[in-house]
Amino acid sequence: MLKNSFLCSSSRVSIASLTVVAMADEIILLDFWASHFGMRVRIALAEKGLKYEYREENLWNKSRLLLEMNPVHKKVPVLIHNGKPICESLMIVQYIDEVWKDKSPLLPSDPYQRAQARFWADYVDKKVPQLYHELGKKIWYTKGEEHEAGKKEFIECLKFFEGELGEKPYFGGENFGFEDVALVPLSCWFYTYESFGNFSVEDECPNLMAWAKRCGQKESVSSSLADPHKVHGFVMEMRKRLGID
Amino acid sequence: MVGVKLFRTWSSPFALRAVWALKIKGIDYETIFEDLSNKSPSLLQYNPVYKKVPVLVHNGKPIAESLIILEYIDETWKHAPLLPEDPHERATARFWAKFGDDKVLTSIWSVFIKQGKEQEEAMVPALENLKFLEEELKGKKFFGGETIGFVDLALGWLGNLISILEEIVGLKVVDGEKFPLLSAWMQDFADAPIIKDNWPPRDRMIVKFQALRDATIAAAAAAAAAATSK
Questions:
Q1: Which of A86, A111, A119 has the CB atom closest to B88's CB atom?
Q2: Phi, psi torsion values for B36, nearest 5 degrees
Q3: What is the pLDDT of residues B183-229, one digit of tens each?
Q4: Which of A137, A160, A187, B69 is the most buried (most CB within 10 A)?
Q5: pLDDT tens digits for chain A (245 residues)?
């Protein structure tokens, strides 16, 4: 009787774990190759060693799936886990960190440190529209006074991050974490800012550049960030479309 | 320094989120009221990046940004949870809280500070955003389900500020017929015992927001006049 019970409970456990494995299998990422926000999610998925299907979206002709899965904002990235969508990149990263919590935690376990990590990631989020859409556009698409003003402000933003980083290896301290994931996609755009802005990030912000290189040495980051030259080509293409060149 | 302090103003809807959360958790704390035209050295020290309220200080350590404060409160005092346990439900709750700040608040504010045709145009996105919230309430009393949760606290300002703004501009934004669930929720939330004793005085709010609207409209008119005279 006892032996049978043991066998029965083992079978139940194996069926349960098979079910868990099958349930955890389907991950789809709707993304755009140059998206700062999309890269954050790619990094998080790579940190956890997760297999997923990457689907490139044409932002000028969005797929029905994207519009269905993110009807509110209609934006990438969207993570679809077993059919259920999660939107907004920092929320997706937290979701990934909470579901696959046993490997490479991105957020610390202490509530105060978690609050600090969230605060800085949120700060980056507030800065991103300014960095790319306002200042980036001034640097890539304009000349003269407007161009110089954009460049000056961009460098000031970077210097603020440089100050916050200080001598630490990562923004959160000793380990790569949530704040680094939030900011590091900007680094694959450095080459584009530098060539159109005619300055060097390394000269202006040596600690930040060292941090970017340090992050880039991680497989999860190097495999997730867009190629800087491809990014540059993309901006060149946008300039042509706008009739700038 | 031990204990909990909350830096707030008498009217800030963002600070109210922390007030409600601390009340739900039964946490004792000291309130420091700030005059934003004359910020205290403590506020500037605790929130050097934004210099804003609310700031929660726990055992001498500051936390800023109201939604981040809510999560900190929830993770530090684990009883009476504000966020659900399931990761997908948590992600959904965070999504709607942020939607409230980024889209609902900004679009309603836009209606409030405009007039005439511009105001009519501003109503369109405001109503679209409210429709999403109406959908989200289907089958639920509160956004958190049977009890008040994270999203309710995040959107709670709707339960009070909306009627004040509506009274000032003479315009109904959350129409009971168009938004039956949202209207019912606003009432249920505002009447909840934890919530109702903490609303700032209505007459003072009306004076404050009327003045804010008048100043914003005057500034916009001055800017338009300067632009056309160039």
A1: A86
A2: -65, -15
A3: 999 999 999 988 888 899 999 999 999 999 999 999 999 999 998 87
A4: B69
A5: 444 444 444 444 445 455 455 455 799 999 999 999 999 999 999 999 999 999 999 999 999 999 999 999 999 999 999 999 999 999 999 999 999 999 999 999 999 999 999 999 999 999 999 999 999 999 999 999 999 999 999 999 999 999 999 999 999 899 999 999 999 999 999 999 999 999 999 999 999 999 999 999 999 999 999 999 999 999 999 999 998 87
- Distance to chain B for A118, nearest Cα, Å: 7
Please tell me the distance in Å from B165's CA to the nearest CA on chain A. Answer: 25
- Which DSSP category does B56 fall into? E
Residues contacting residue A235 through CB under 8 Å, at least 6 positions apart: A140, A192, A196
List beta partners, residue A208.
none
The conformation of residue A105, written as its DSSP 8-state character, comes to -
Mapped onto helix, strand or coil, the DSSP state of residue A162 is helix
Q: CA-CA-CA-CA torsion for B114, B118, B120, B125, nearest 10 degrees?
A: -90
Residue B63 touches partner A, C-beta closer than 8 Å: yes
Instruction: Find all residues with CB under 8 Å of B116, minimum gap 6, and list them.
Output: none
Peptide bond before B48: cis, by omega within 30 degrees of 0? no
Give SS3 for B64. strand
Q: A28: which strand partners?
A: A53, A80
Chain A: residue whose CA lies nearest to B49? A123
pLDDT, one tens digit per residue, over A86-97 is 999 999 999 999
Identify from B14, B67, B95, B128 which residue to disrupt to test chain A contact, counting A C-beta atoms within 10 A and taking the largest count: B95
Residues in chain B: 230
Instruction: Name beta bridge partners: B58.
Output: B4, B61
pTM of the model: 0.92
Q: Do the Cβ atoms of B71 and A115 come within 8 Å? A: yes
How remote is the C-alpha of B144 from its chain's centroid? 16
Q: Do A94 and B98 touch (CB under 8 A)?
A: no
Q: Is the CB of residue A143 less than 8 Å away from at least one CB of chain B? A: no
Cis before B54? omega within 30: yes
Query: What's the CA gap between B112 and B104, in Å, rounded?
Result: 12
Name the residue with tokens 């050097």.
B48
